[in-house]
UniProtKB/TrEMBL annotation:
The keyword Ligase applies. Residues 256-448 form the GMPS ATP-PPase domain. It comes from Roseibaca calidilacus. It catalyses: XMP + L-glutamine + ATP + H2O = GMP + L-glutamate + AMP + diphosphate + 2 H(+). Its EC number is 6.3.5.2. This is GMP synthase [glutamine-hydrolyzing]. GO terms for molecular function: ATP binding; GMP synthase activity. Pathway: Purine metabolism; GMP biosynthesis; GMP from XMP (L-Gln route): step 1/1. The keyword Ligase applies. It comes from the Bacteria.
């Protein structure tokens, strides 16, 4: 569903590209539970059948989000320990929620608030009274101390960046520190304004840093721990270990594995779908591929995939997708070759946003046309991922319920009266890859670089012509081949060629050329929100430029794009 997701989300992007500076207060979490999902107005409107994926039988760790920019990372760290967790905004967690969900442990995230300020966020008091281990991070530490009888002060306590902590005397052997202080002191990442000045009863200092006398405090009897730094970020190298130790203390068994997930997801799909038919938009991207194979394993021929070929795919891409799914997996697949339609409507259009809008609109029309031919279809499968369903915490106007997954839906399920099957809704991208491996998908599919829904259209600035697309496809294939041959593919988040809207003069043999210029782009990134250009060697760049110019007629000049994001974006349009 990557392309499906991609094209539909491109429609919203047409109005606002994500602002890389505004990573903002997301990081808050997703209602993977029936209660929360049912309370979302747009879900009710659409009557989505999400509940089949809503409740989990696994040990559950609740993350209460106070609006930190990095709350999602807490969830990722916990998942690395095979622990199921969900993030919920502080203002959606109440006693009824806690009773119904019965978390085995609770983590309080950081956040931009200031505990001494009136009306700053708090955790429900029940969090501390229900007898489960609690771990407070940064703002979460301060909330914990304040609510349990300690003291927090604002003032000149701000500390940002690297710091080094050491265990307090007699605490090096504490279970929470297992494997943490092997080197005596440990680097941590601080980012806070206020700080704790008096401990709550029952707590003691168990680690300090030169500027943070309460770097880690703990109440071993209750398994309450609170840290002033951020253990969830990479700059706290042993932070994941410390969180893992907390999970062990809390009694988690690490039962969230992809093998178990696969079996449960299959059972849930069967239960949800019954004997009805499901349509799945397939792009060949990781998410839609994994969703399709999983659903096919669950319901076999009740699944039909629709692969919309908009004529903006890479070299051999359509054939590869069709061969893999139709021939290798025997999944009923409609190959909707609508390239004439798309390229016809794009003729003469050079404005990037207009291109995106045209592609988004046509994609929906085409998908609907083919989907409506599938008799008895009641469900639409989507490769929605956990980060797509993240809510945002708003400190000014109550909980803000912007759910990204609706960008994917694009109104189509309502229009067609379809219910949604979203078997990946609880997973992060790397977990989807793990599930793909579990399902036996080829590594080449699982490790693919992301490819945007509007396809080559946004790698062809200016007017799109078949000639330019053809040159671009061939040049891109040479470039990717070079990257693979040099063993660099997996180090790079995304690499592609773009054909520039200009011709330049060159000399080949003894003749003058007047051909297209090409830009090569390769970036490293974690999530596509920020990115850095990949530092190829000069030898690599020289060799690649030579190969492209020799092997691809129509190109006589190659540039390498050294722009990071921000200020650039990954794609050229
Ligand atoms: P930008 O160009 O915004 O891209 O830095 C960030 C990531 O998003 C991909 N991208 C898209 N993905 N639909 C998508 O699903 C789109 O319309 C779209 N535009 C860009 C891009 O390839 C990169 O991975």
């Amino acid at each position: 569903m990557q392309q499906w997701t991609a094209v539909l989300s491109a429609r919203s992007r047409a109005h606002s590209r994500p602002n890389p500076h505004a990573l903002g207060r997301h990081g808050v979490r997703a209602p993977a539970m029936a209660l929360a999902v049912a309370s979302l107005p747009s879900c009710r409107r659409a009557g989505f059948a999400l509940c089949a994926f809503a409740m989990t039988q696994h040990d559950f760790c609740l993350i209460i989000d106070f609006g930190s920019q990095v709350t999602q990372l807490i969830a990722r760290r916990l998942r690395e320990w095979n622990v199921y967790c969900e993030i919920h905004p502080f203002n959606t967690v109440d006693d009824a929620f806690l009773t119904a969900r019965a978390p085995k442990a609770i983590i309080l995230s950081g956040g931009p608030g200031s505990v001494p300020e009136a009306d700053s966020p708090r955790a429900p008091q029940m969090v501390f009274d229900m007898g489960v281990p609690v771990f407070g991070i940064c703002y979460g530490q301060q909330v914990m101390m304040e609510q349990l009888g300690g003291c927090v002060e604002s003032g000149h306590h701000a500390e940002f960046g690297r710091a080094y902590i050491e265990p307090a005397s007699g605490h090096a052997g504490d279970t929470i520190f297992k494997g943490v202080f092997d080197a005596g002191r440990e680097q941590v990442w601080m980012s806070h304004g206020d700080r704790v000045t008096a401990l709550a009863p029952g707590f003691e200092v168990i680690a300090t840093s030169p500027n943070a006398p309460f770097a880690i405090v703990g109440d071993h009897a209750r398994h309450f721990y609170a840290v002033q730094f951020h253990p969830e970020v990479h700059h706290t190298p042993k932070g994941a270990q410390m969180l893992g130790n907390f999970l062990t203390l809390a009694g988690f068994s690490g039962d969230w594995t992809m093998g178990a997930y696969r079996a449960e997801a299959i059972a849930k799909i069967r239960e949800q779908v019954g004997d009805k038919r499901v349509i799945c938009g397939l792009s060949g991207g990781v998410d839609s591929s994994v969703a399709a194979v999983l659903i096919h394993e669950a319901i076999g021929d009740q699944l039909t995939c629709v692969f919309v070929d908009h004529g903006l795919l890479r070299q051999n891409e359509a054939e590869e997708v069709v061969t893999m799914f139709r021939d290798n997996y025997n999944i009923p697949l409609i190959h909707a070759d609508e390239s004439d339609l798309f390229l016809g409507e794009l003729e003469g259009v050079s404005d990037p946003e207009t291109k995106r809008k045209i592609i988004g609109r046509l994609f929906i029309d085409v998908f609907q046309k083919y989907a409506s031919q599938i008799e008895g279809a009641e469900f639409l499968a989507q490769g929605t991922l956990y980060p797509d369903v993240i809510e945002s915490v708003s400190f000014s106007g109550g909980p803000s319920v912007t759910i990204k997954s609706h960008h994917n839906v694009g109104g189509l399920p309502e229009k067609m009266g379809l219910k949604l099957v979203e078997p990946l809704r609880e997973l992060f991208k790397d977990e989807v890859r793990a599930l793909g491996r579990e399902l036996g998908l080829p590594a080449s599919f699982i490790g693919r670089h992301p490819f945007p829904g509007p396809g080559l259209a946004i790698r062809c600035p200016g007017e799109i012509t078949r000639e330019k697309l053809d040159i671009l496809r061939r040049a891109d294939a040479v470039y990717i081949d070079q990257i693979r041959k040099h063993g660099l593919y997996d180090e790079i988040w995304q690499a592609f060629a773009a054909i520039l809207p200009m011709r330049t003069v060159g000399v080949m043999g003894d003749g003058r050329t007047y051909d297209y210029a090409l830009a090569l782009r390769a970036v490293t990134s974690v999530d596509g929100m920020t990115a850095d250009y990949y530092p190829f060697t000069h030898e690599f760049l020289g060799e690649t430029a030579t190969r492209i110019i020799n092997e691809v007629r129509g190109v006589n000049r190659v540039f390498y794009d050294c722009t990071s994001k921000p200020p650039g974006t990954i794609e050229l349009e």
